[in-house]
Specification:
There is one protein chain. With 227 residues, the chain is mainly α. The chain has a domain at 76-219: Lysozyme (Orthogonal Bundle), CATH 1.10.530.10. It is 67% helix and 0% strand. Helix 3 (53-94) crosses helix 4 (98-110) and helix 9 (186-195) packs across helix 10. The longest helix has 42 residues, at 53-94.
């Protein structure tokens, strides 16, 4: 009778055949399990796939929208800070209440007038006195004449012309219209504001110089001084 010799690990051929068969069965079981998981739509295979170009483009667009929104919020915050700084600066410089400085600043910008020019105009015209009245009947902060005020807002009463926002708005709008009339020449517009457009044009037609020191006085300390 043939006796099977053990291998170096001490296993007989019968034992080795048993181990090989068990290993094969285990491998088969693992393969079946893997195939079953694949056929059942396991998410692992899907998660391993790289994102499509469409998915990447959608994500980039979403990030761009969030960035634009953040930039818009930052721009608004900066504008608010700049406005607050300007109001404090003008309030301090002209020794006026913050609400008057804020109204002058906001209305000047809305009417297209540089803030520094607007503040200097009010200073020269009325020294920021709301009830200022000239011997010729000009009223309020910007010393508007009733016919001029009613040209812009028909039916205004004299008392309404003294109202802060009404007076500032009409005065600044009148100056802006004069700037358009004289091709953006701020000094000439200021002279017409002070002397009247008819008088300024009469002097110009006669070859004269309508300057009387008013424009220089208003523009003192601004970037236009000395131009």
């Amino acid at each position: 009778m043939h006796i099977e010799e053990p291998d170096p690990l001490g296993r007989t051929p019968w034992t080795r055949r048993l181990v090989v068969r068990g290993t094969a069965l285990l491998a088969a079981a693992l393969l079946v399990a893997a195939l079953a998981g694949s056929s059942s739509g396991a998410p692992a295979a899907d998660e391993a796939k790289p994102p499509s170009l469409g998915m990447v483009a959608d994500e980039v667009r979403a990030l761009s929208r969030r960035l634009e929104a953040s930039q818009g919020e930052l721009a608004i915050a900066k504008a608010q800070i700049d406005r607050a700084d300007a109001v404090i600066r003008f309030s301090t410089e002209f020794q006026i209440p913050a609400d008057l400085a804020a109204a002058t600043y906001d209305i000047a910008l809305s009417e297209g007038i540089e803030a520094e020019v607007a503040f200097r105009l009010v200073l020269v015209e009325s020294n920021f006195k709301p009830r200022a009245t000239s011997p010729k009947g000009a009223v309020g902060f910007t010393q508007i004449q009733p016919p001029t005020a009613r040209y812009y807002e028909p039916g205004l009463s004299i008392e309404q012309m003294y109202e802060r926002d009404v007076n500032l708005r009409i005065g600044f709008r009148f100056l802006k219209d004069l700037m358009r009339r004289y091709g953006g020449d701020l000094e000439l517009a200021l002279l017409a504001y002070n002397r009247g457009p008819a008088r300024v044009e009469e002097i110009l037609l006669q070859g004269g110089d309508p300057a009387n020191g008013y424009a220089r006085n208003v523009l003192r300390g601004t970037r236009h001084a000395g131009h």
